[in-house]
Amino acid sequence: MQSIMPIKSVEYDHPKAGLSCTAQAWARAPETPSADERSELKDKIRRLLKEREAVLVAHYYVDADLQDLAEETGGCVSDSLEMARFGRDHPARTLVVAGVRFMGETAKILSPQKRILMPDLDATCSLDLGCPADEFAAFCDAHPDRTVVVYANTSAAVKARADWMVTSSIGLDIVAHLHAQGKKILWAPDRHLGGYIQKKTGADMLLWQGSCLVHDEFKGVELDLLKADYPDAKVLVHPESPANVVALADVVGSTTQLINAAQTMDATTFIVATDNGILHKMRIAAPGKHFIEAPTAGNSATCKSCAHCPWMAMNGLRNLAAVLENGNNEVFVDPEIGKLAVRSIDRMLDFAAAKKARALPTGELAQEAALFSGVGPA
Ligand code: SF4
Questions:
Q1: Atom of ligand 1 nearest to the CA of 126
Q2: Is 102 domain-assigned?
Q3: Where does iminosuccinate bind (predicted)?
Q4: Alpha carbon 320 to chain centroid, angstroms
Q5: How far is ligand 1, taken at its centre, from the CA of residue 370, in Å?
Q6: pLDDT confidence of 191, banded at 50, 70, 90?
Q7: Of 30, 173, 288, 321, which residue is most buried, by most CB within 10 angstroms?
Q8: 243 and 277 both lie in a single domain
Q9: What is the pLDDT of residues 55-83, one digit of tens each?
Q10: Ligand 1: which atom is nearest the Cα of residue 127?
């Protein structure tokens, strides 16, 4: 059984959050259906996916039922890099993206001819909210000598202003590659991930000061105390977490890299510092192992997420069945913005494909910069 922490509803205080504050997101998160309704909804979703010739693409942080449905119906459950790639390459004309808004937009940018549906179009992300396109453009204009690298968790308009888009699974390699070419980087929006990559690569990086409200809440002091209670446990940390939490990690990586670590490491107990939605997949990948959520609560903590993203929680069986039935909640991206944004995403996908072709372990790419000289002009 996945342990459930009580959720304290505290408004997300970004001035531009408006209707998307966490209190309202939690209020919109669907209640768990009864066992009978759950079974009916799952049958209905399986049937509608077939009838609509649609495929379900889900993130590791959404409800476990949605993850299971995606896998059993031929869709995919994965991190945002694989979601983007899978959606682009799958022949289905309709993609249903269970995740947050920027994931639906990325799917639309990569596949403008396809219909992209989402269970709730108001499911957003504190990183996206914290990086408004107009302010970001002004920041870029003020630093024209820098190569602009943005994290996937941004709006289409921010991606359109970027030279490269990266995800957490490949950001380190891409920045190492650019650094090896002598480029100076402007990075947005996550300050923790940017700081981690800067430290690992030594690149000259100017950082936008955004953060993920889920990972920002992990507490280094409390994690240290928990480690003392479980001396044999290995600590798995997503690099959107604060530096003092990353410093306590045995493995730092993207969601997929953390799942792989849980599966392949000898340890039987793991403390996990990322959204607790990932524990479902970890338990499937590593049966018999024990997973403990890293602490988000300390003496002065105001828990807005308690290790689960309020916007990911807006995806449920009922609203997934509803969009398949009525075709509502379609994602649209301004075609002109889409044409600009696709360049930064394609660069990353080309880079990832080249890396896979060479099957180089992480870290060796910096020395292989010549290999990627044809990937793109940025
Ligand atoms: S978990 Fe964090 S980074 Fe992911 S969608 Fe939620 S707020 Fe954004």
A1: 7
A2: yes
A3: 59, 80, 151-153, 168, 238-240, 255
A4: 19
A5: 34
A6: very high
A7: 173
A8: yes
A9: 999 999 999 999 999 999 999 999 887 88
A10: 8
Q: Is the per-residue pLDDT at 14 higher than 60?
A: no
Q: Count CB neighbours of 204 within 10 A.
A: 14
Domain boundary among 265, 293, 321: 293
Looking at the structure of the chain, the number of domains it has is 3
255 is in an annotated binding site: yes
| Residue from 127, 129, 150 to probe ligand 1 pocket by mutation (most atoms less than 8 Å from CB) | 127
Final residue of a structural domain among 207, 235, 265? 207
Q: Which atom of ligand 1 is nearest to the CA of 275?
A: 1
Asked whether residue 42 is assigned to any structural domain, the reply reads: no
- Domain co-membership, 160 together with 197: yes
Q: Is the CB of 25 under 6 A from ligand 1?
A: no
Residue 311, ligand 1, Cβ within 6 A:
yes
Both 162 and 147 in one domain: the answer is yes
94-98 and 147-151 beta bridge pairing: unpaired
Q: Ligand 1 in contact with 275 (CB < 6 A)?
A: yes
Atom of ligand 1 nearest to the CA of 128: 8
Question: pLDDT tens, 210-238?
Answer: 999 999 999 999 999 999 999 999 999 99
Closest CA to 304 of 99, 7, 62: 7
Per-residue model confidence as pLDDT tens digits over 334-343: 999 999 999 9
Cβ of 62 below 6 Å from ligand 1: no
Structural domain harbouring 315: 51-125+310-333
Asked if 148 and 199 sit in the same domain, the reply is yes
Examine the domain organization and report whether 239 and 287 are in the same domain. yes
The response to whether 212 counts as a known ligand-binding position is yes
Distance CA 106, CA 341 (A): 9
Looking only at the bridges linking them, the beta strands covering 76-78 and 54-59 are parallel
Same domain (yes/no): 83, 147: no
* Residue 16 belongs to a domain: no
What is the predicted pLDDT for the residue at 298? 57
For 37-62, write each residue's pLDDT tens digit. Answer: 999 999 999 999 999 999 999 999 99
- CATH number reported for the structural domain that contains residue 314 in this entry: 3.40.50.10800
Atom 5 of ligand 1, residue of closest alpha carbon: 125
| pLDDT at residue 19, rounded to an integer | 44
Closest residue by Cα to residue 47 from 77, 31, 76, 69: 69
Is 168 annotated in a binding site? The answer is yes
Q: Nearest residue CA, atom 7 of ligand 1?
A: 125
Which residues, at least 6 apart from 315, have a Cβ–Cβ distance to it below 8 Å? 58, 62, 63, 66, 98, 99, 118, 119, 120, 123
How many Å apart are CA 272 and CA 87, to the nearest integer? 28
Atom of ligand 1 nearest to the CA of 215: 2
